[in-house]
Amino acid sequence: MPVELIKLLIALVAIAAFVGLNGLVLVYLERKVAGFVQRRPGPYEVGPQGLLQPLADAVKLIGKQLFTPKGADKLLFWMAPVLSFFPVLLLFLPIPFGPVATGMEMNLGLLLILAFAGLNVLAICLAGWGSNNKWGILGAARGVAQSVAYEIPLLLSVLAIAFMTGSLNLTTIVEGQGGWPWQWNVFVQPLAFIIYFVSALGETNRAPFDLPEAESELTAGFHTEYSGMGFGMFFLAEYANMIVVCSVAAALFLGGWHGPFFDGAWWFLAKVYTLLLIMIWLRWTYPRVRFDQLLNINWKWLMPLALLNLFITAFVMKL
Predict the structure, then answer these.
(1) Among candidates 280, 303, 264, 296, which has minimal Cα distance to 201?
(2) pLDDT tops 80 at residue 101
(3) Per mean pLDDT, which range of 252-256, 297-301, 314-318 is the poorest?
(4) Cα dist. 161→179, 206, 283 in Å?
(5) How many CB atoms sit inside 10 A of residue 308's CB?
(6) pLDDT for residue 260 is more than 80
(7) What are phi and psi of 284, to 5 degrees?
(8) What are the φ and ψ backbone dihedral angles of 96, each rounded to 5 degrees?
(9) Is the model more confident about 257 or about 224?
(10) Going by fewer Cβ within 10 Å, which terminus of the chain is more open, N or C?
């Protein structure tokens, strides 16, 4: 077996373990932050300070019966959660967690992430269509419209950094930044960072943009009919996508593994978890927007600002 293939398999196994472990940590963090915002203790009974609650939830999901609803398209119904989760693992390959901690070094790493991230839209579409459920169809329609809309300003904000650095390799982009905050790309491209982060919230279906699964309107949207590990895979894919968008933000805008002292993976993880905590805080602080407001934010604000920022960047780089 070629050495490169062995390295790829080892990297994928390590990424799967990383995603699983971080899924447990994020479930605990999310529930604790929700408890803090709502002035209640959050998970408290299972293990010390409720630390084992995510593990108990995972065991419960694994133990539940897998159920296919009557009239559903069985192939599409079960293909959707698989298509939602497994391609996410590939998105971690080009992310540089540290100077020598990259799953696979590639010149077009940023392009690979943007290309494979689009598969999640297809998974949402299949889940809604295959469920034979009206809430599922409505949730899928919302998910597709939202993802396609917010993908454009996200791409334009990433392009501004690519124009500036002349590379689509995340390691090269990180190496072009320094250890101190004023040496990070966010200080040169603050507007691109804001547009990227707001678009990332829309792309990951996180509140206040969680319209594809709005509980008060659509029960659970595109995953209404899923139980057990079918739901569990959508759940894990959402957290994995959150880690990916925050990791890309840390590499593009926040200096990646660089820090004021002793560069290393700990700086990268600290920046990623800071962004994740902001995403979680936003979910439990701000109300869900209406669908027309969601599209207005994109087409009236994010898109024009992202285009203007890209044109200015291209003009300045040409001078």
Answers:
(1) 280
(2) no
(3) 314-318
(4) 18, 24, 27
(5) 12
(6) yes
(7) -95, 5
(8) -85, 100
(9) 257
(10) C
Give the phi and the psi of residue 88 in degrees, each rounded to 5. -60, -35
Residue 222 has pLDDT above 80, yes or no: no
* Residues in contact with 273: Cβ distance below 8 Å, sequence separation at least 6, in sequence order: 246
What are 249's two structure tokens?
A: 């933000």
Tokens read off for 16 = 């799967």
Write out the two tokens for 291.
């669908």
Secondary structure of 216-263 as H, E, C letters: HHHCCHHHCCCCHHHHHHHHHHHHHHHHHHHHHHHHHHCCCCCCCCCC
Looking at per-residue pLDDT, the higher value among 55 and 102 belongs to: 55
- The two tokens of residue 56 are 């108990």
Task: Kindly state the tokens that stand for 90.
Answer: 């590939």
Q: What is the 3-state secondary structure (H, E, C) of the chain?
A: CCHHHHHHHHHHHHHHHHHHHHHHHHHHHHHHHHHHHCCCCCCCCCCHHHCCHHHHHHHHHHHCCCCCCCCCCHHHHHHHHHHHHHHHHHHCCCCECCCCCECCCCCCHHHHHHHHHCHHHHHHHHHHHHCCCHHHHHHHHHHHHHHHHHHHHHHHHHHHHHHHHCCCCHHHHHHCCCCCHHHCHHHCCHHHHHHHHHHHHHHCCCCCCCHHHCHHHHCCHHHCCCCHHHHHHHHHHHHHHHHHHHHHHHHHHCCCCCCCCCCCHHHHHHHHHHHHHHHHHHHHHCCCCCHHHHHHHHHHHHHHHHHHHHHHHHHHHHC
